[in-house]
Design goal:
The chain is α/β, with parallel strands linked by helices. It has 15 helices and 17 strands. It is globular, with a radius of gyration of 24 Å.
């Protein structure tokens, strides 16, 4: 195939990845280092020159909206210089004359990526990705065609990105690179000096010096979770067989459902002994999962919207759950800010089982506020991504913790009917 000049001239730190790329790669780069352009160009190059029949390549960001905002224009700019390339705006994909396709995806619903095969994939903002995206979904998609993966991003504490980077550093079959702004020369010293003046030390160290140790800006529970780890409350906790296991749920409809399993051993302590999350499953799936875990259950705490009736069946999910053997009780309905504050107040007395609660722990660390890109201020509204579901379930746990006191039982049918009247839609006809 004739080589095509797309007008891309990589900087030295970008060329280091192009030249050193292996099958598994982790690139930790500071803000404005050009990681998106670098990654898009690697996808374009491989789509043109890798000898793969109907090659399939992907660029995945935390959400589809975010992925489009950062990568779509670059893809059209550089791939658009290839004669005969076709773009599909609705699918956010481009098809090359040789049959290769690059498509943009979001990770807000990881299960939507199941069933794909991939010859190469870029995972952007890896620190914000659900842990299971790689191990359960992407790795199987890459296996049979020996596809490659590049994890890129800027640090946001100790999470899956940190683990992948440490693995790449210690595994000679992986490629690892870390690029600090003080080393690449991609940003002038004057601009860096101005950034240091306007940012907190932690923000600067994270965003420009690629520190995994700096606090995550805007994270609701960063301080509390850091204290839990420092005090040894994130540990091999196990489950006390003589105590009931309670659950707290965030019930998704089109997205994920999260469930925390906890015990109240007394002395003001709460033990988070297990965590469950899945997407696209109905209540029968979770009822079976609860039975399979084999715990002796106490109270199941649900959000208030469990009372809303399904127009197709005329039943609320509370009634459906009851028919499956899950007797829910409903957490108090309070404003979001009050619920987040209740979760903050609970965290100093919370202990977590490292092995069983790993994804939930990571979600609590990364649950954060929306940042207004124009003003640079945090809005007070939480980002809605994969971390939201576990954090919401923990919020309902905090609000409904009193319901798990000894002697508390799930609602009776009469109590459920009375509570439904608070949330029932108005009757339009007599």
């Amino acid at each position: 195939m004739k080589r095509i000049d797309l007008g891309y001239r990589p900087r030295p730190h970008q060329e280091a990845l192009h030249a050193g790329k292996r099958r598994f790669n982790v690139a930790v780069l500071h803000r404005r280092a050009g990681k998106t352009v670098m990654s898009v160009m690697e996808l374009v190059h491989c789509s043109l020159y890798e000898q793969k029949r109907q090659g399939r390549y992907a660029y995945i960001g935390p959400t589809l909206k975010q992925t489009k905002a950062v990568a779509w224009d670059y893809l059209k700019l550089y791939a658009g210089r290839v004669p005969g390339v076709k773009f599909k705006e609705t699918e956010l994909s481009c098809e090359f004359p040789n049959g290769s396709v690059i498509r943009l995806w979001g990770a807000e619903n990881p299960d939507s990526l199941r069933g794909l095969y991939l010859d190469g994939v870029v995972v952007d903002e890896t620190a914000l990705m659900p842990r299971r995206l790689y191990s359960e979904i992407l790795l199987p998609a890459l296996t049979d065609r020996r596809g490659w993966v590049i994890f890129i991003g800027t640090p946001q504490g100790h999470n899956i990105f940190h683990e992948l980077f440490r693995r790449a550093q210690n595994d000679p079959s992986w490629f690892a690179i870390l690029c600090r702004a003080s080393e690449t020369g991609a940003i002038s010293e004057n601009d860096l000096r101005e950034a240091r003046r306007q940012m907190t030390a932690e923000e600067y160290e994270q965003e420009f010096e690629c520190s995994f140790e700096a606090a995550i800006p805007g994270a609701y529970f960063a301080r509390e979770m850091a204290a839990a780890e420092k005090e040894g409350r994130v540990t091999a906790l196990g489950c006390e067989n003589l105590l009931p296991v309670h659950t707290a749920w965030d019930l998704g409809v089109a997205d994920s459902t999260s469930v925390w399993f906890f015990q109240a051993p007394g002395q003001g302590r709460v033990h988070l002994v297990d965590f469950l999350e899945a997407s696209g499953e109905g209540l029968p799936y979770y009822a079976a999962a609860l039975r399979q875990k084999g715990y002796s259950y106490g109270v199941h705490i649900a959000p208030h919207d469990i009372m809303v009736r399904d127009l197709s069946t005329g039943k609320s999910r509370l009634e459906t759950a009851r028919s499956l053997g899950i007797g829910f009780t409903v957490a108090p309905r309070l404003p979001l800010a009050d619920g987040i504050n209740a979760a903050r107040m609970l965290l100093p007395s919370a202990w977590f089982d490292t092995a069983r609660c790993g994804p939930g722990i990571e979600a609590l660390k990364l649950y954060r506020q929306v940042k207004d890109e124009r003003t640079g201020c945090f809005t007070g509204r939480p980002v809605h991504d994969w971390t939201s579901h576990a954090a919401d379930a923990f919020r309902y746990l905090a609000l409904g913790l009193d319901l798990a006191a000894p002697g508390c039982a799930p609602m009776t049918a009469a109590q459920a009917a009375a509570l439904y009247e608070q949330f029932a839609p108005p009757r339009m006809f007599s």
